[in-house]
Amino acid sequence: MSISPPPVPAPATPLAAASAVACHAHKFGGSSLANAERIRHVAALLREEDAARIVVVSAMQGVTDALTALANCALAKQPWEDDFRALRARHLDTAHALDAGGVHALAAWLEDEFATLHAQLSAPKRSPEWFAEVQGVGEVWASRLLHAALGDDASRWAVLDARDVLEVHAGELGVGVDWPASRARLLAWRGARPHANVIATGFIARNGNGVATTLGRNGSDYSAAIFAVLFEARELTIWTDVDGVLSADPRLVPDAVCLASMSYAEACELAYFGAKVLHPQTMAPAMHAGLPIRIRNTLDPEAPGTLITAQSQPAASPVKGLSLVPDMAMLELTGAGLIGVPGTAERMFAALHTACVSVTMISQGSSEHSICCVLRADQAERGRRAVQAAFRDAIADGQVEGVRITPGVSVLAAVGDGMVGTTGVSARLFHGLAQARVNIRAIAQGASERNISVAIASEDATRGLRAAHAAFWLSPQTLSIGLIGPGNVGRALLAQFAQAASRYGGGASGLDLRLRAIANSRRMHLAPRRLDPGEAVEALELGQALDFDRFAAHVRAEHLPHAMIVDCSGSDAVAAHYADWLAAGIHVVTPNKQAGAGPIERYRAIRAATRNGGGHFRYEATVGAGLPVIQTLRSQLDTGDELTEVEGVFSGTLAWLFNRFDGSVPFSQLVREARDAGYTEPDPRDDLGGLDVARKLVILAREAGRELSLEDVEIESLVPPALREVSREDFLARLHELDAPLQARLDAAKREGRALRYLARLDRNGRARVGLVSPEPNHASLHSQLTDNLIQFRTRRYASNPLVVQGPGAGPEVTAAGVFGDILAIAQALGARP
Ligand SMILES: NC(=O)C1=CN([C@@H]2O[C@H](COP(=O)(O)OP(=O)(O)OC[C@H]3O[C@@H](n4cnc5c(N)ncnc54)[C@H](O)[C@@H]3O)[C@@H](O)[C@H]2O)C=CC1
Ligand SMILES: N[C@@H](CC=O)C(=O)O
């Protein structure tokens, strides 16, 4: 789209010279003037500035709509008195609050105003001028309210009713300004009012006959630009209730960012395509006069806002903003008879013009076999009939197939001066949309290269907008992370996240790990943007009841490129969700062995989900905690080797216990110490009963392609039968019952000059056993220490001398590091260079 601003004739007598001061123009919208408190706040903002000021005001929030409704009711002879009284009361209340001492006689003045309005609404004569007078009176009231709010300073301010000065006419493309006449009137008006500062009414004006009129919806911004030019202001600040122009609608894109600067052309493109920036008409006088416009937040005046000037400032992204126009329809004219025939487009668009149908986007392939355009949905049927009528004969002759309307369409536009001459912008947009599975129905890019527009199904619109935003504003390696299970391991992981925050916050590495949700067995907390890892556990205390579906849906945010759930629980109930999460594209990382060693059908479903294009699944920390056990095995298998046997110490807890157990301290006391150190499973019977070791053996066997299950493993339990079924608390209370049988095993081993070790073994025949043994004195397990795991792989390549992985195999820190490593490995697979 190209906007050519209407000419703004140079002043015959410079007004700034006439008024002798260069001023700064401000415009306050209805939200900034919603009540007495806001109006006082605006007055305070104005008092802070030393320069001369011209301030253009809208009506108080909602007042123009209320006046329009009153006028419509009066026209339709429907009751309007109640609404009139409410409007009067609202203004009088505000007047009393702002002019309590009656210094400005504001209430009395307003009473007169409302009496006039009442008479107007009751009058039998109704004309367009009448309507404009009723509709525009809110700005007159607002200007007086703000004047009163200036208090002692008010004497330095004059109030300007724009109808005394601003002369406009209905132009072909909207309201046009009669610049020479307006300038002359302003000079005359100014001559009688030498005040340094002026409050002018927005929205309203007069026509050449001196009759009241308005500048159309959102006309106050236009008024502000016109007055800024007329007063030759250095800059125009438009005050609103947001921080500036955002990269996309923040209600749809939570990650939308405030733009520091943009060009007039960018602002026009965005405004036209649905972003609530400024109406393009507003920009026209400013563009012509080279007037900088700044958008600022009344509620946060310190925020720098967005500066709109002729020159686009260089920015990180070639795209400045994304906009979305909903409620559109696509009209398509197709037929072999269109090919190479001149004048087809002219006929189609002339028909639409005659039917008063506005066209938003046009697309035609070079084959000329079809031509399509996007229209407002409520004009689509009218457009279809018009085009059908224009091509009636060609349709009857079969040269044109017909006119088709596709409803439910939205137009998504990427806008930016930086797109001009930059390669790869459309590739990024289309790739982002493709990743979000958004189908593109039609594409348009003008030769200005400032705008790429796509027509997409409205049901995909929000997802498409978010995906496109992520493609341009976020690192493509932004991971939305949900953590389940902030226990020993989960908390250690949070601490590691906190420590690495500066590295993985989307900075130099490009990788942005965003913790956005946390859950324990009872509660969850979902953060819209980002959770501070240092405060996540505390936030959980105030969370809501755990609901896995909502948790996963939140983590899989459409506005973020990737989603990951990190399960640091030991729960089977959580593992039961993995296949669904993976199938939905959510990556899963876990130290929880329940999935890798759980029912074989579930394991197969998980594998199938990852194979069929789902998320990545990594669970390195399930065996050997932070040790590279699974990846070592994988790299052998992936390079063509074959596992024949695996044997070793698979439990950090049992390694630590039997490294320490020499009879000097009861076994039960050592178990308590291991538990306190965070080595044991949530229920230490999983370690002592051999289940934890058996699970790890199953995981490795399955990794090597064997369909082993827990039932296939011969397990020796160190837990006496009487303690196997009791509650965890009872078990811990009766731990001493382990002491005598284990002391007896130790004594027997010592008598043979041996020690005890709990070993796991999968032999070449597929036999799997875990249990307590007294190994030969030269066995490697006797030369390990503390929580050392020792995993010996015998493969075809490592046949006579096994491949050994050894090191600490339990503890929150090393386990969390293993989990963190898996997260980074997935990020790397997604393209990050952590
Ligand atoms: N501690 C260690 O050295 C190692 C632990 N692991 C594994 O790490 C996992 C966690 O171990 P720890 O942190 O020591 O356990 P923990 O008992 O300290 O923490 C478990 C956490 O999971 C949560 N949780 C339990 N059931 C849940 C459910 N149904 N839904 C949501 N949350 C649930 C709990 O609320 C708690 O926050 C276990 O699967 C364990 O096998 C793996 C390797 C080493
Ligand atoms: N409890 C387990 C923790 C790691 O899987 C162990 O002691 O090895």
TrEMBL record:
In what residue span(s) does the Aspartate/homoserine dehydrogenase NAD-binding domain sit? 485-620
List the keywords (alphabetical).
Amino-acid biosynthesis, ATP-binding, Kinase, Lysine biosynthesis, Metal-binding, Methionine biosynthesis, Multifunctional enzyme, NAD, NADP, Nucleotide-binding, Oxidoreductase, Sodium, Threonine biosynthesis, Transferase
PROSITE patterns noted in UniProt: HOMOSER_DHGENASE
Q: What superkingdom heads the lineage?
A: Bacteria
User: InterPro entries annotated for this entry?
Assistant: AceGlu_kinase-like_sf, ACT-like_dom_sf, ACT_Aspartokinase, AK-HD, Asp/Glu/Uridylate_kinase, Asp/hSer_DH_NAD-bd, Asp_kinase, AsparK_Bifunc_asparK/hSer_DH
Which GO molecular function entries does the Swiss-Prot or TrEMBL record give? aspartate kinase activity; homoserine dehydrogenase activity
Q: Which Pfam families does the record associate with it?
A: AA_kinase (PF00696), ACT_9 (PF22468), Homoserine_dh (PF00742), NAD_binding_3 (PF03447)
Q: Which residues form the Aspartokinase ACT domain?
A: 333-391, 413-472
Pathway membership of this protein? Amino-acid biosynthesis; L-threonine biosynthesis; L-threonine from L-aspartate: step 3/5; Amino-acid biosynthesis; L-methionine biosynthesis via de novo pathway; L-homoserine from L-aspartate: step 3/3; Amino-acid biosynthesis; L-lysine biosynthesis via DAP pathway; (S)-tetrahydrodipicolinate from L-aspartate: step 1/4; Amino-acid biosynthesis; L-threonine biosynthesis; L-threonine from L-aspartate: step 1/5
Subunit-structure text = Homotetramer.
What is this protein's function? Bifunctional aspartate kinase and homoserine dehydrogenase that catalyzes the first and the third steps toward the synthesis of lysine, methionine and threonine from aspartate.
The molecule here is called: Bifunctional aspartokinase/homoserine dehydrogenase
